[in-house]
């Protein structure tokens, strides 16, 4: 085993918990923003989750990894399932460590008189407003300016769960290859939550099943492989 | 000194390792770890809200369930659960998700010596797969000593039964670091300091120096 150079740069490499990635004593007078997966210990920044270390200018570092469990962050759009209704809040499960609260008034034009009634088990498209460690996250069905903006109840359709990495890939821009290929031939409606839940709706059940299977298969495929996979699936139903 | 091992290994040589992750569909993290013929499957569920009554709600708690290959759960299984729980508590960062429980379930698939170190390695890999925040990884090894004073690493079940005593040792992993003194090199090989857990069985006097030398070659 050789000695590593002291200026080894670990950006875009796979790191495991315990690796030290930044030495802060040599970086004075800079503001560095740390994202998920990194923790500051005195003068160094070390990794707490395994994944690929990413850096975006000017000063953001984070570890990119794909898990089946979601860590709530502010301004994320997620799909939640209502588990209980109380006087002030709906209890919504967003696949994180704790149950999230959705205030009863957090809807466009919401007052005490027109509180929506959600049955237990209904699927909602919501936005995370507060995500402090140790506290239950808070959600909202409006965007930052108070408009409804597609948030709210999702009726019909089919929901399935995937990893957080796949849902980030589906939401990336330019459009993910598998969604682009499916969109050329089929018409369907889709809602992707950053917590790994995907909801698909279409006129016929066979379209829904096809779209769901195509998305679930595309996790570890490259762009070209995704196009080939979608072509094969579509040929089967013709 | 020359040692004859049944499968022709050197005293310091480990059995072939194999590890695969994300093998269970429903578990949030899973790993299968095999050293030679000993194979253990670990599954991690969580973190889930709520802790048990006698756990500290200001920290995350870890619950371990050990399932033997055959037979009912008895005292040895409970002992393994406690050792595994203490080890995992010292490598996970418990202050990040307070008042939650992470369940680790260990299933023994085949036991051919060095079972507990294999289970610790499998549990650590499963926790990494589930994305539970950890300070560093845990590396576990079994070394045992015989009457004539030599010690060997990673024994099979037959070798374990013939030995005078054996010890399971768990270390933090050697890390990549950008600090100049981060990875300390001793005789050209990376060394780590500190032991997380050690379990000893039998009588092992006077062998500690040979034990230290042989373990530093891992």
Automatic annotation (TrEMBL), chain A:
It is found in: Cytoplasm; Nucleus, Nucleolus. One of its GO terms (biological process) is exonucleolytic trimming to generate mature 3'-end of 5.8S rRNA from tricistronic rRNA transcript (SSU-rRNA, 5.8S rRNA, LSU-rRNA). It holds the Pfam family Rrp40_N. Residues 73-142 form the S1 motif domain. One of its GO terms (molecular function) is RNA binding. Signal peptide: none annotated. Keywords: Cytoplasm, Exosome, Nucleus, RNA-binding, rRNA processing. GO terms for cellular component: cytoplasmic exosome (RNase complex); nuclear exosome (RNase complex); nucleolus. Coiled coil: none annotated. InterPro entries: Exosome_RNA_bind1/RRP40/RRP4, KH_dom_type_1, KH_dom_type_1_sf, NA-bd_OB-fold, RRP40_KH-I, Rrp40_N_euk, Rrp40_S1, S1_domain. The keyword Ubl conjugation does not apply. Belongs to the RRP40 family. This is Ribosomal RNA-processing protein 40. It comes from Citrus x changshan-huyou.
TrEMBL record, chain B:
It comes from the Eukaryota. This is Exosome complex exonuclease RRP46-like.
């Amino acid at each position: 085993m050789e000695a590593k150079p002291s200026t080894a740069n670990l950006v875009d490499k796979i790191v495991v918990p315990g690796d030290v990635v930044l030495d802060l004593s040599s970086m004075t007078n800079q503001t560095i923003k740390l994202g998920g997966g990194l923790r500051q210990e005195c003068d160094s920044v070390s990794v707490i989750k395994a994944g690929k270390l990413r850096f975006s200018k000017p000063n953001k570092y984070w570890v990119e990894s794909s898990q089946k469990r979601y860590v709530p962050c502010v301004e994320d759009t997620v799909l939640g399932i209502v588990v209980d209704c109380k006087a002030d809040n709906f209890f919504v499960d967003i696949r994180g460590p704790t149950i999230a609260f959705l205030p009863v008034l957090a809807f466009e034009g919401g007052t005490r008189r027109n509180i929506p009634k959600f049955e237990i088990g209904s699927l909602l498209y919501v936005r995370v407003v507060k995500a402090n460690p140790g506290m239950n996250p808070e959600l909202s069905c409006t965007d930052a300016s108070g408009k409804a903006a597609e948030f709210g109840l999702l009726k019909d359709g089919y929901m399935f769960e995937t990893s957080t990495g796949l849902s980030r890939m589906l939401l990336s821009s330019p459009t993910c290859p598998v969604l682009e290929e499916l969109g050329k031939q089929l018409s369907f409606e889709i809602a992707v939550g950053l917590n790994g839940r995907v909801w698909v709706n279409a006129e016929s059940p066979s379209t829904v099943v096809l779209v769901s299977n195509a998305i679930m298969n595309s996790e570890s495929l490259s762009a070209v492989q995704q196009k080939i996979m979608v072509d094969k699936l579509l040929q089967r139903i013709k | 000194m020359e040692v004859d091992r049944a499968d022709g290994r050197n005293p310091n040589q480990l059995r072939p390792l194999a590890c695969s992750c994300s093998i269970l569909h429903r578990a949030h993290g899973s790993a299968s770890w095999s050293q030679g013929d000993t194979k253990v499957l670990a599954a991690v569920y969580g973190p889930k809200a709520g802790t048990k009554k006698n756990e500290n709600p200001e920290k995350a708690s870890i619950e371990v369930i050990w399932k033997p290959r055959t037979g009912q759960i008895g005292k040895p299984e409970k002992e393994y659960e406690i050792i595994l729980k203490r080890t995992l508590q010292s490598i996970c960062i418990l202050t990040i998700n307070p008042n939650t429980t992470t369940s680790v379930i260990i299933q023994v698939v085949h036991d051919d010596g060095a079972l507990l170190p294999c289970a610790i390695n499998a549990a650590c890999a499963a926790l990494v797969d589930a994305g539970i925040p950890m300070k560093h990884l845990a590396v576990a090894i079994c070394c045992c000593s015989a009457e004539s004073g030599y010690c060997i690493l990673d024994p099979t079940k037959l070798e374990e039964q013939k030995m005078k005593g054996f010890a399971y040792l768990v270390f933090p992993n050697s890390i990549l670091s950008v600090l100049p003194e981060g990875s300390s090199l001793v005789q050209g090989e990376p060394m780590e300091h500190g032991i997380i857990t050690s379990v000893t069985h039998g009588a092992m006097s006077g062998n500690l120096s040979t034990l230290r030398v042989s373990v530093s070659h891992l």
